[in-house]
Amino acid sequence: xxxxxxxxxxxxxxxxxxxxxxxxxxxxxxxxxxxxxxxxxxxxxxxxxxxxxxxxxxxxxxxxxxxxxxxxxxxxxxxxxxxxxxxxxxxxxxxxxxxxxxxxxxxxxxxxxxxxxxxxxxxxxxxxxxxxxxxxxxxxxxxxxxxxxxxxxxxxxxxxxxxxxxxxxxxxxxxxxxxxxxxxxxxxxxxxxxxxxxxxxxxxxxxxxxxxxxxxxxxxxxxxxxxxxxxxxxxxxxxxxxxxxxxxxxxxxxxxxxxxxxxxxxxxxxxxxxxxxxxxxxxxxxxxxxxxxxxxxxxxxxxxxxxxxxxxxxxxxxxxxxxxxxxxxxxxxxxxxxxxxxxxxxxxxxxxxxxxxxxxxxxxxxxxxxxxxxxxxxxxxxxxxxxxxxxxxxxxxxxxxxxxxxxxxxxxxxxxxxxxxxxxxxxxxxxxxxxxxxxxxxxxxx
Length: 446
Ligand code: GLU
Fold this sequence. Notes:
Layout: E1 4-7, H1 17-32, E2 36-41, H2 51-64, E3 70-73, H3 78-90, E4 94-97, H4 101-113, H5 129-137, E5 143-146, E6 152-157, E7 161-166, E8 174-176, H6 185-194, E9 199-203, H7 207-219, E10 226-230, E11 234-235, H8 243-246, H9 250-255, H10 260-269, H11 282-287, E12 300-301, H12 303-315, H13 319-328, H14 336-342, H15 352-360, H16 370-378, H17 389-401, H18 405-417, H19 425-432, H20 434-441
The structure holds glutamic acid.
């Protein structure tokens, strides 16, 4: 079977971590099995869908490194849905209903009061032709429900294992609203059929939809895809998909300096019980990707953990992997030697700017002990300098002044870099160079 999956966001907001994880898992599955991913924008809700969100979603996915062979917009495929709806109508699998939202709510409340599940009672099925005409003459427009078969529905879920539902435990779902627009259920199934999807991988909030859609696939004469439902993320406090998590967007993580591959590796491992491994490519992540590794327990998205992992990822990036980014940040002199000197001290890649400034732009040195640092300036050895220079220079200084430890190093660091902490001076010193070092030790802006 050729694997074809889809990621189907609604362009009603920015991509958040939960969406990104679902996109990633789909992409990894496709990649692992030599398949493809389709990007489907679920934009039938005309009031809430916006093209700027659609564009932001595409940009975020590209930033993560995820690609797709085809992009479809549901708003451009309405004729297909009309055709499927007509077929269901001809087969007697949809029926018009006239209840108002208030009437439906009243029915549900009564069912609950009697301890019964709020399942639609199919009252509209008993309306006579005359009654329907009367309702329509009074200005009511029908919404349309799918007539579920009251039989068992079962599938083998790639994450959850065997799943079973009883058709009579489900409400006949509304497919078309009274204003003629489609709800999610039918367009999604029609697209999954039309686009030849082999697998539908999505969140467990869609498990009931799957039970219904299995009957829709059958009613439309199509084979169903293989299904997989992943537990949704909770935030670190375990409070379910909270508002807080919804507000953690891919854009906000990018702004906070999270690297795309750190986010990919972190999201791919969440819920598998394994720690994230800093990989340098999506292809490497895909190599041993297995859906059954995701358990049924709710994975916790922990921003602090991601930040710590990101730090490790940044610190382990080899120069060729960051060279282009450093250049795009405008850090012209950021060569391999500079990168090796600073990377153990980075929390995020953007910190490289600070050290670039320290190495190559004029800074105001902090001269804590003028006599001592002036003496140090006088002892600076001639160039060429290398990583040994710092050791031989400070040994000489120590012998001369009797200073050691912090008393020796801190005034030098403050004068040379203007700050108290930072990368090892033995690596920075040759980059700063003799002329600049000497001027800074003399308290000059250099
Ligand atoms: N647009 C739907 C969602 O974001 C897609 C669900 C699906 O994968 O079928 O929940």
